[in-house]
């Protein structure tokens, strides 16, 4: 992966094993599996990770980010069997660190 962010890296470490397969606790553990949406079907569908949706300042707080995500979810880019992960929360601009 190019330009791996800290959030995506943490997600990958927590969700996938060393072979790139979803960890068993997300498929069998009653607490972690939630409604049981992660299972063998992950072998036959896509996993989409949405890290950031940016809305210009003057258009914020009008529901545009949610609208854009819904448009994407129902677009031809996403299949009915795909899993979509969205990291919730406001985006914080990262300050570059000095070398």
Q: What distinguishing features does this structure have?
A:
99 residues, 2 strands, 3 helices, two-stranded parallel ribbon, 2 domains, alpha+beta
Mean pLDDT: 74
Task: Let me know the number of strands.
Answer: 2
Order of strands in the sheet with the most strands?
Answer: 1-2
Indicate how many domains the architecture comprises: 2
Fold blueprint:
Elements: H1 6-15, H2 25-28, E1 47-50, H3 64-73, E2 83-86
Parallel strand pairs: 1-2
Characterization of the model:
This protein has 99 residues and is an alpha+beta fold. It folds into two domains: 1-44, no CATH class; 46-89, no CATH class. It contains three helices and two strands, in the order H-H-E-H-E. It has helices at residues 6-15, 25-28, 64-73, and strands at residues 47-50, 83-86. It has a two-stranded parallel sheet. Strand 1, helix 3 and strand 2 form a beta-alpha-beta unit. The longest helix has 10 residues, at 6-15. The two termini are 23 Å apart. The relative contact order is 0.15. The model has no long low-confidence stretch (mean pLDDT 74).
Could you give a short description of this structure?
This protein is of the alpha+beta class. It is built from 3 helices and 2 strands; from the N terminus they run H-H-E-H-E.
């Amino acid at each position: 992966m190019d330009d791996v962010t800290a959030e995506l890296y943490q997600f990958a470490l927590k969700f996938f094993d060393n072979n790139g397969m979803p960890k068993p606790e997300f498929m069998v553990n009653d607490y972690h599996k939630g409604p049981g949406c992660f299972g063998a079907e992950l072998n036959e569908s896509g996993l989409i990770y949405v890290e950031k949706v940016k809305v210009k300042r003057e258009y914020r707080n009008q529901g545009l980010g949610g609208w854009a995500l819904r448009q994407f979810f129902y677009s031809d880019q996403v299949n009915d069997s795909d899993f979509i992960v969205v990291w919730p929360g406001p985006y914080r601009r990262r300050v570059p660190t000095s070398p």
